[in-house]
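Service request form, structural biology core

Requester: graduate student, group of Dr. S.
Request type: structure prediction, single chain
Budget code: on file
Notes: please return the result as structure tokens.

Sequence provided:
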Amino acid sequence: MSKLETELGLTLFSRTRQGVQLTTVGETLIVPARRILQDLEIFEETVSGLHGVTAGALRLVYSQTFAVSTVDIVAEFRARHPDVRLQITAPRDDGEIFRLVAAGECDIGLARIDEAIPGVSVEEITTEKLVLLIPRAWDRHPECQNTPWTEIAHFPLIVSPAGSDSRRRLDRFAAQLGITLDVAVENEHREASLEMVKSGIAAFVTVSGQSDSMPGVTAKTLMPLSITKVGIVTKGERLSPAASAFKAVVHDWGAGQGS
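Core staff response, request fulfilled:
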């Protein structure tokens, strides 16, 4: 690092007893430096592609909380491109997905794209709707597949932590309807929330998907429908061969959902 600083004629790091930190100049150069490294990776991966091999690393970020079958997508991608090394990041919410992709820390993401931020490019793949999951013993109207939003006020609820995207959306719906939520549990892990519904602890507002058919659980589509777009998130720049290949797999998955 000292040699690099000498060649540039700049002080990039401040060295103290507490450790090494970037200087203001170093922080200014970190973004273009990261871009150069990414361009070099794309160059190397493109050369591999010319030899018929899609290789390299793919930094992927996606939420575990929506209806897209990310496991199926990743499995198909690995089957098609076994030489690509995946680095998967689990974000706190969709907002973090946008920030990671915009900053160049992840190559491609899957997220709810209705509230995408400037600096990213999004492409819709599918949509999802919200359902109310309740323990089957609590279902007073088993003949009805739908239920009004106001019904959620009658159940103790499992909700995401305050400040998360999904919590803000739920609080916004409640405010618009003039209802008060009975928050029994705050939890950010979807699988644990599903198990709590199954155990009869509380109800859970989530996206429609495989959880709709869990034993001991009833899913009610919330009316009026709340439809959210789900799609691919990139920086909108030239993608690496690995990112382009992943995007193609997602497109194929999305096409299969409509068939």
